[in-house]
Design brief:
The structure holds three protein chains of three kinds. Chain A has helices spanning 20-26, 33-43, 45-62, 64-67, 107-110, 130-166, 168-183, 186-196, 201-228, 231-238, 243-279, 291-301, 307-334; strands spanning 97-100, 103-106. By secondary structure, chain A is mainly alpha-helical. Chain A has two domains: 45-78 and 130-334, MetI-like (MetI-like fold); 83-118, no CATH class. Chains in contact: A-B, A-C, B-C. The structure holds adenosine-5'-diphosphate (ADP) and magnesium ion.
């Protein structure tokens, strides 16, 4: 057996449990759920990087009129298809030189551009400044995405709540509709809508939202079903609170994580659809730029002037990647079990 | 008696988001051939981690930072992955708590029971399945021949636990570790499973480590009992020692919160107030001190050593120190001391 | 199970009926004549052409006729392409679409499963990070962007593959890669989540406790259990491959259905759009049905019913 250590006698006095209270105090302070979510989100480096990127892109889009160096739709045929040039810095690929018949020539000089002219990302076939077009194009794409997502929320959330809350026959009927809508490939519906409606921003938003709400409705319904049985909601019901009050006071706050996460996945989806429609030529009409139209224009010239495609392709991909990853990060932050560290 | 397993000064740490959790902090015990050792303690006290360390079935963020686990004198912690695979399910096998989730939902139970045989012995598939059928009959699955090709979801919870037991004993293990095998089951089914384990132990002569947080089931199965708290053992001895001559205030608490037949007029559970300490930063003294109505100043400063109570009965509490004041245990415990005297024991 | 399948088939037809009706009436909403893109026609000519297509009848008569035709497998007649029946168009163009579609599904699924499984087994290591990165790229980069990049670098610049040509297997490789990226990313992510879940389950613990080596734990228990749910995302993957094929076929000039669909859109060939829409929907609903049945067959919990003795 272990040696019994020598200990002064006075240590052997009962202290009772007066330090019980102290022990309780030491335990970690209870963070509120939302604080906890935020702490977890900000601890996730990938999510923070994505959030920053998205914030920058959103800010640039909001302040596009101030930031864009040129009018995105101003044509100047003499300046068409100029390669990127960053001031007078002589960076290969960004110095206004272009390969013509195997020789590098200063395209700006050839086009007779006034001294000091430079387009950071070059110009397109109509001499429009690509950087400005990309800034405005991103803005338009984001507007489409945000509006489509809003419509999604406005249809999907109430639909899901009603379906889940009412249950029974109402629910069965509403779910049949959801089933049918979701068994039609949504791109086809979007394309049909685009053919029927006049091309433009509103049509795209409607076309995307007309099938997009289904996923949101499904998730919200499933969650509502679970919440309905929770005690505080049962209590609110027995106390006779009105349905609208229960929905706004109890349901929506508890549905918020589901809704926020789903929104993060709806946005890239809407951006993709806009780009897709514009790419096949039934999206945003000329002369306005969106990421899709820029890609479509860029693709036509890609063989000879690859920079015209690269820039919008990179921006589009960054937005898609960042929103997807941020969605993942939010999901982990809201539901730490899903990715236990 | 033969010690077939001896755990010496086991320390297990977990790397977590918030820091290192010292889940097991110096555990010593041994298992004799043919006996049943019960480990009891509140949930979270480290029972599962202790026995999982034996088979090295720990989460990836766990490290056994110190200690020896001697199986027939061989340190298992020095074995490589392949040698450990050869021991698992063959010499030492394990039964888990939740029978509803312990079986592979997409494999027939016949194959699942036969699997250890195919892994460890050079037998044909046919022979393995035949043996699996015998064992299923042994554990009390009715009509096993017909049910070999059924899937887990076609069985009840109690039956599934019998199947899990069949898997554990199919290769006649020397040591059977049962980690709360009855916790998830109904009371009546619990009793059946305990009976089954006892019966099997007699038939195949295996040693059992039986884990539970419910002292009630211990009396029916164990030879010796170890009481665990906050990653350490606080008291161990024979069943009679622990039930009728407990020395550690934590054991008193556990016994007091156990409903017994002869105290049925006062059957409400006095669960021990307070919560276990945070093992991210384990206390320097006795971990139970903050919840201990009999705590002394020294309990907060210094880890109590094990004091010998009788030949095989030890308890780690400063109350057993010669300088400690005489304390009166709760009434329920005094009753137990009375019974112990009647049994011919030498109670304090 | 049989009852379930019959019920599903009933809903299949109901859904198709609704889709066909909606498509029909949507097309009727279109302003102007469907011939606005053709050379100018005199009013008389227009009348003759309209009569020829039955467009002089009431909308209801046209609807009944159209639905009647559908029942006989008649998807209508193209306004363009020499008045070919849409079914004939589909017949000519089905093979290339099916080939790259099927190749993309197989490549995407197989590599997605591998990638997801590796990520799950090597969770929180560099292999996991790499696999996650690849699947995010696959999910995020639109297939048409990928198609153009692949075409430019691998075909046009480095001349490893043909640029835009449809004859042999070689020419199907780039479109397949472009189309496979999305299913690959989807499957990899899904597989990783499933497998991480499975790997932390009690029955995997028990499989280890039986003495299975880590390799056997994965191959005998973890893989099968994580693969079963992957079957459920085959349907949505088929949708994304189909979507992608419209632009990818266009970019690589593949004479497939997707290319035809886009062409019909830009030329306002409404009967073809309608016919292809219904055809696409039919195809996808069939895929969903097959996947559903398949799932029931491979998961014993569904195949044998849940009415176990609980
Ligand atoms: N994967 C893990 N990560 C971090 N800590 C763990 C992990 N598993 C167990 N622990 C810690 O070890 C302690 C003991 O757990 P366990 O042995 O499962 O308790 P029980 O006595 O209920 O079986 C728990 O309180 C917990 O804090
Ligand atoms: Mg446990």
């Amino acid at each position: 057996m272990e040696q019994i250590p020598q200990t002064p006698k006075e240590k052997f006095k009962l202290v009772h449990d007066e330090n019980n209270a102290e022990q309780e105090k030491i335990s970690t302070p209870a963070l509120t759920y939302m604080q906890d979510v935020r702490r977890r989100l900000f601890k996730n480096k990938v999510a923070v990087v994505c959030l920053t990127l998205i914030s920058i892109i959103v800010l640039i889009s909001i302040f596009a009129p101030i930031i864009a160096p040129h009018n995105p739709n101003a044509q100047n045929v003499t300046m068409s298809n100029l390669p990127p040039k960053l001031g007078n810095l002589n960076i290969p690929g960004m110095n206004g030189y272009q390969n013509m018949g195997g020789k590098m020539v200063d395209a700006y000089k050839q086009a007779g551009a006034p001294k000091g002219t430079s387009f950071i990302l070059g110009t397109d076939y109509l001499g429009r400044d690509l950087l400005s077009r990309i800034i405005y194009g991103t803005r338009l794409s984001l507007i489409v995405a945000v509006l489509a997502t809003l419509v999604d929320l406005l249809i999907g959330v109430p639909y899901g709540i009603v379906s889940g809350w009412k249950g029974g026959k109402t629910d069965t009927f509403m779910q049949r509709i959801v089933e049918i809508v979701s068994s039609v490939p949504n791109l086809i519906v979007v394309i049909l809508m685009m053919i029927v409606l006049k091309p433009g921003l509103t049509s795209i938003v409607i076309a995307i939202a007309i099938t997009g709400w289904v996923t949101m409705a499904r998730l919200v319904r499933a969650q509502t079903f679970q919440l309905k049985e929770q005690e505080y909601i049962l209590a609110a019901r027995t106390l006779g609170e009105s349905s609208t009050k229960i929905a706004t006071k109890h349901l929506i706050p508890n549905l918020s994580s589901t809704i926020i996460i789903q929104t993060m996945f709806t946005i890239p989806n809407a951006i993709f659809f806009e780009a897709f429609l514009s790419f096949i030529g039934i999206g945003i009409p000329a002369p306005n730029a969106s990421l899709g139209t820029l890609l479509s224009d860029g693709q036509k010239a890609f063989r000879f002037l690859p920079y015209q495609m690269w820039a919008p392709a990179i921006i589009l991909s960054i937005i898609m990647i960042a929103t997807n990853l941020l969605g993942d990060g939010l999901r982990d932050a809201f539901d730490p079990q899903s990715s236990e560290h | 008696m033969d010690k077939i397993l001896e755990v010496k000064d086991l320390h297990v740490d977990f790397d977590t988001y918030n820091g290192v959790v010292h889940a097991i902090r110096g555990v010593n015990f041994h298992l004799n051939a043919g006996e049943t050792l019960a480990i009891v303690g509140e949930s979270g006290s480290g029972k599962s981690i202790t026995v999982r360390s034996i088979l090295q079935l720990l989460a990836s963020n766990a490290t056994i930072s110190k200690g020896e686990i001697l199986y027939h004198g061989d340190d298992l912690l020095q074995k490589n992955a392949k040698e450990m695979d050869n021991l698992r399910g063959n010499k030492i096998s394990m039964i888990f708590q939740d029978p509803m989730t312990s079986l592979d939902p997409t494999m027939t139970i016949g194959k699942q029971v036969a699997e250890p045989l195919l892994i460890h012995n050079n037998v044909s598939k046919k022979d393995a399945l035949k043996r699996a059928e015998e064992v299923l009959r042994l554990v009390g699955i009715p009509n096993p021949a017909a049910r070999m090709n059924d899937y887990p979801h076609q069985f009840s919870g109690g039956q599934r636990q019998r199947i899990v037991i069949a898997i554990a004993i199919v290769d006649y293990p020397e040591i059977l570790i049962a980690d709360e095998p009855t916790t998830a089951l109904d009371v009546t089914v619990q009793a059946q499973i305990i009976d089954l384990l006892r019966e099997l132990q007699q038939k195949i002569g295996t040693s059992i480590i039986f884990i539970t947080h419910d002292l009630g089931v211990v009396a029916g199965i164990a030879d010796r009992v170890a009481v665990m708290y906050a990653g350490r053992f606080v008291e161990y001895g024979s069943v009679d020692d622990i039930f009728f001559n407990p020395q550690h205030p934590y054991t008193w608490g556990l016994l007091d919160s156990m409903p017994t037949l002869d105290t049925n007029e006062d059957a409400r559970l006095n669960s021990i107030p307070g919560t276990p300490p945070n093992l991210l930063d384990p206390p320097a003294g006795d971990a139970f001190a903050p919840r201990n109505a009999y705590a002394m100043q020294i309990d907060e400063e210094q880890q109590p050593p094990f004091f010998q109570v009788s030949k095989h009965h030890f308890a780690a509490t400063w109350l057993l120190h010669p300088d400690a004041p005489k304390v009166t245990p709760p009434a329920g415990i005094l009753n137990r001391y009375e019974k112990f005297k009647k049994l011919g024991g030498n109670a304090k | 199970m049989t009852k379930y399948i019959l019920k599903r088939i009933f809903y299949l037809f109901l859904t198709l009926f609704i889709i066909a009706s909606l498509t029909f009436f949507l097309m009727k909403l279109l302003p102007g004549t469907p011939f606005s893109n053709q050379n100018r026609m005199s009013p008389d000519q227009l009348k003759i052409v309209k009569a020829q297509y039955g467009l002089d009848q009431s909308v209801f008569v046209q609807y009944v006729r159209y639905m009647g035709g559908l029942l006989q497998g008649n998807l209508g007649t193209s306004f363009q392409f020499n008045n070919e029946p849409v079914t004939a168009l589909i017949g000519q163009r089905l093979a290339p679409s099916m080939q790259i579609g099927a190749q993309a599904m197989v490549v995407g699924t197989v590599f997605g499963i591998l990638l997801g499984a590796v990520a799950a087994i090597r969770k929180n290591t560099w292999a996991d990070t790499l696999a996650t990165f690849v699947s995010i790229l696959g999910l995020s980069i639109p297939s048409f962007v990928l198609a153009v990049l692949l075409q430019f670098y691998l075909a046009y610049k480095w001349r490893i593959f043909p640029v835009a040509l449809w004859d042999n297997f070689q020419s199907s490789i780039l479109p397949t890669i472009a189309l496979a990226a999305l299913p690959l990313g989807t499957v990899a992510r899904f597989m990783r989540t499933e497998m991480v879940d499975v790997m932390s389950s009690d029955y995997i613990e028990l499989a280890k406790a039986k003495g299975n080596s880590s390799w056997k734990v994965v191959t005998k228990h973890a893989l099968r259990n994580s693969l079963i749910p992957v079957v459920t995302i085959i349907g949505p993957m088929a949708v994304s491959v189909m979507t992608g094929s419209m632009v990818v076929e266009n970019i690589f000039s593949i004479p497939g259905i997707g290319e035809q669909f886009v062409k019909s859109i830009t030329t306002n060939d409404y009967p073809t759009i309608m016919g292809l829409t219904i055809f696409y929907s039919f195809l996808l609903i069939i895929v969903y049905l097959i996947v559903d049945i398949l799932y029931g067959l491979i998961d014993p919990r569904i195949r044998l019913g849940n009415g176990g003795k609980e």
